[in-house]
Structures are given as structure tokens and as C-alpha cells.
């Protein structure tokens, strides 16, 4: 696979689409964000992140996690979609192993499907979300030892496709190793 011809696809449309404009104007949008406080030390998110929420309305929901650097450069590193209906919903995101560097911010986006990589059948309903909770398995990467081998040949392509500018908003939670949030 390392020697296969490049098949780079365009970045998904709608990745963090218009966030800065929406934040500045205060307009109602099809998604909302929550940001952590900047990390005091590096933290690895591992396993399967889980988001639970209570919804009013029926349709689809897209859940995303972003790693935001101090300069606002953000990489979407996990996502999942699900049908949503009235009541409590728990969604497992994709299993991941991602390290957030010290000074970075974790952002959570909950909203409509806005990317071209997922098929959506809009319900036309307004869905209200409350009581959202994020559960993460966190680890301290301080004692990590690099394995032998070269950098993944697909990492740079992924970073090009899933990096956007997403300035951090007001912090509402803290991420610390050895705890669940």
C-alpha cells in the first residue's frame, strides 16, 4: 500500500463550515461546539469515545472531535453519525488513538450532517439537544516509547484533508489524564 498511486480525495465539504462567522454573529446554526480548557500536559485519547445526549425531534446527528492548536489550526480526528429520536441517545464514535499536545484544546461538535462523506436524508425537523456528556479513556503519554518504522504514508494526506481553522471558544470542561470526562 505504501507504493500505491495517490488517490487523494478532496476535503469533505462542511468540515467546521463557517464556524468563526457563526460564532461572531451569534446566529442559530445546524451544529454547536464545546471546548476544553487548554491542556496543561499532553493527553492521549484512546479506545472508543462515547457521547450521550437527550434530544427532542427526529433526524440525523453528526458528532465530531477536534484537536485545536493554539493558533486555531484544528484537525478533526474522530466522527460518527446516528439516527436521533426523542429521548436519551448514546453513540460510540470510532475507536481512536490520538494524542493532544500540551496547550491544545479538545473541541466537540454536535450537529447536522454537513460533509460529503456521509449520506443524509434530512428530516426537516429542528432537533434540540440537552444534557450532552462525553466519555473518554485518557492516558498520559509521558512514558511512551516510539516503535520502529517510518511515519505512516497516509498521515500527511489525512492532515491535509481534515485540517481547518477553528478558533477555540469559551472553555466548558477540563481534560486530564487518568480521568473520564
Give structural notes.
- The protein is mostly beta strands and 181 residues long.
- The chain is built from two helices and ten strands, in the order αββββββββαββ.
- The strands form two sheets. It has a six-stranded mixed beta sheet with strand order 9-4-3-7-1-10.
- A hairpin with a 4-residue loop joins β3 and β4 (73-84).
- The protein is globular.
Q: How many strand segments? A: 10
How many helices does DSSP assign? Answer: 2
Largest sheet report: 6 strands, mixed
The proportion of residues forming helix, as a percent range, comes to under 10%
What distance separates the N and C termini?
A: 37 Å
Uncertain segments are 1-11, 20-26
Q: Could you spell the SSE succession in H and E letters? A: HEEEEEEEEHEE
Q: Beta-strand level of the residues, as a percent range?
A: 35-45%
Provide the structure class. Answer: mainly beta
**What topology, given as strand order, has the largest sheet?**
9-4-3-7-1-10
Average predicted local confidence, pLDDT: 81
Radius of gyration: 17 Å
| Shape field | globular
Amino acid at each position: 500500500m505504501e507504493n500505491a498511486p495517490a488517490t487523494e480525495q478532496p476535503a469533505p465539504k462542511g468540515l467546521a463550515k463557517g464556524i468563526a462567522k457563526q460564532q461572531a454573529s451569534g446566529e442559530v446554526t445546524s451544529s454547536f461546539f464545546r471546548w476544553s480548557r487548554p491542556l496543561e500536559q499532553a493527553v492521549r485519547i484512546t479506545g472508543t469515545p462515547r457521547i450521550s445526549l437527550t434530544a427532542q425531534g427526529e433526524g440525523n446527528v453528526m458528532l465530531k472531535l477536534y484537536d485545536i492548536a493554539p493558533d486555531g489550526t484544528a484537525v478533526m480526528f474522530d466522527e460518527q453519525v446516528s439516527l436521533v429520536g426523542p429521548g436519551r441517545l448514546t453513540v460510540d464514535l470510532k475507536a481512536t488513538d490520538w494524542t493532544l499536545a500540551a496547550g491544545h484544546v479538545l473541541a466537540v461538535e454536535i450537529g447536522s450532517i454537513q460533509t460529503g462523506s456521509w449520506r443524509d436524508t434530512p428530516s426537516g425537523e429542528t432537533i434540540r439537544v440537552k444534557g450532552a456528556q462525553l466519555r473518554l479513556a485518557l492516558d498520559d503519554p509521558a512514558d511512551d516509547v516510539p516503535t520502529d518504522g517510518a511515519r505512516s504514508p497516509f498521515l500527511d494526506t489525512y492532515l491535509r484533508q481534515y485540517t481547518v481553522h477553528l478558533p477555540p471558544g469559551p472553555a466548558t470542561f477540563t481534560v486530564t489524564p487518568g480521568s473520564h470526562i
